[in-house]
């Protein structure tokens, strides 16, 4: 169903989700979370979905954070519930079977930086800015930022960003490994599409299991090496792997079927 808060376009299995609250710099309110959750729930495990791009409406902001105007009524229990709900939706993104790329076209602050970090890959425009400014509001991050920022850029710089609330520019985000590409402003979605088109030619089950293996590295309850040999067995037993090997030997393009 059409939702004005989250615009959805699709071409050849690549979906572009545009968070559409430019008047609030695309801040994440309940309605945006509901729409994101509905999309990722509905499409989970659907191999016709080859990849997803998340971006923000307008040219100024990707997402400027959680919607601060929803905070005033919250007590401790309400705040924890809001944070847990946000984390759960972002886990759905991180665990999605197909790659999700954040096309960061401006401010990625607080919940916006956290949303980008829950995506598998991040591409930024030259004018993008990243930060976790929650301490300015007397808060800690609520949607996984205290954990994923350390995962992505290391404890030293993450600690400085989390404690000072300083924003970093796209070039520094590239240097730190927070993003993997910086492109001319306005070209973020095009670059993300190019990456997803490449991944779409690969074995879908292998892509899915690779995403799971990367996530396993950061999951203290999972033995990643054990999961790797299990997933190697799973993928080598698949029809797609036989097709991949046959295509290599016959010097042709593989026709994967997600089986
Ligand atoms: N929530 C709600 N509204 C927001 C918002 C947010 N996070 N960020 C911006 N807006 C709104 C502003 O209130 C303003 O609306 P009005 O015109 O109705 O006043 C509109 O968007 C435009 O913003 P500004 O006038 O402030 O634009 P600017 O260019 O002067 O500044 C900015 C841009 C530096 C990004 C500034 O808007 C800003 O600092 N925003 C807040 C960033 C922030 O603190 N994010 C973290 C939120 S907390 C969080 O995310 C917690 C968590 O982890 C769960």
Explain the overall architecture:
- The protein is α/β, with parallel strands linked by helices and 259 residues long.
- It folds into two domains: 6-199, 2-enoyl-CoA Hydratase, Chain A, domain 1, CATH 3.90.226; 204-250.
- 45% of the residues lie in helices and 16% in strands.
- It contains ten helices and ten strands.
- The protein has helices spanning 30-43, 76-94, 111-118, 145-153, 155-164, 170-176, 188-199, 204-217, 224-236, 239-249, and strands at residues 6-11, 14-19, 51-56, 61-63, 100-104, 107-109, 121-125, 129-131, 168-169, 181-183.
- Strands 1-2-3-5-7-10 form a six-stranded mixed sheet, sandwiched between helices. A four-stranded mixed sheet has the order 4-6-8-9.
- A hairpin with a 2-residue loop joins strand 1 and strand 2 (14-19).
- The longest helix has 19 residues, at 76-94.
- The protein is globular.
- The mean pLDDT is 97.
- Bound molecules: acetoacetyl-coenzyme A.
- Acetoacetyl-coenzyme A (CAA) binds next to strand 6 and helix 3.
């Amino acid at each position: 169903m059409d939702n004005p808060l989250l615009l959805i376009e699709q071409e050849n299995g690549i979906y572009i989700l545009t968070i559409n609250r430019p008047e609030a710099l695309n801040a994440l309110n309940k309605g945006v979370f509901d729409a994101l959750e509905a999309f990722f729930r509905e499409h989970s495990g659907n191999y016709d979905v080859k990849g997803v791009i998340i971006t923000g409406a307008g040219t100024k902001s990707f997402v400027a954070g959680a919607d601060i105007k929803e905070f005033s009524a919250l007590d401790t229990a309400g705040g924890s519930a809001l944070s847990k709900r946000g984390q759960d939706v972002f886990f759905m993104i991180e665990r999605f079977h197909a790659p999700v790329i954040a096309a960061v076209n401006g401010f990625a602050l607080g919940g916006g930086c956290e949303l980008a970090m829950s995506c598998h890959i991040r591409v930024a425009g030259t004018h993008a800015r990243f930060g976790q400014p929650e301490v300015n509001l007397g808060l800690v991050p609520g949607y996984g930022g205290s954990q994923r920022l350390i995962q992505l850029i290391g404890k030293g710089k993450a600690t400085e960003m989390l404690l000072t609330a300083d924003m970093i520019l796209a070039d520094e985000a590239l240097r730190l490994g927070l993003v993997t590409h910086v492109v001319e402003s306005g070209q973020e979605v095009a670059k993300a599409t190019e990456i997803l088109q490449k991944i779409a030619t690969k074995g879908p089950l292998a892509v899915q299991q690779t995403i799971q293996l990367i996530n396993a590295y950061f999951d203290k309850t999972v033995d990643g090496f054990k999961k790797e040999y299990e997933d190697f067995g799973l993928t080598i037993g698949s029809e797609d792997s036989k097709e991949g090997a046959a295509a290599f030997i016959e010097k042709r393009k593989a026709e994967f079927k997600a089986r």
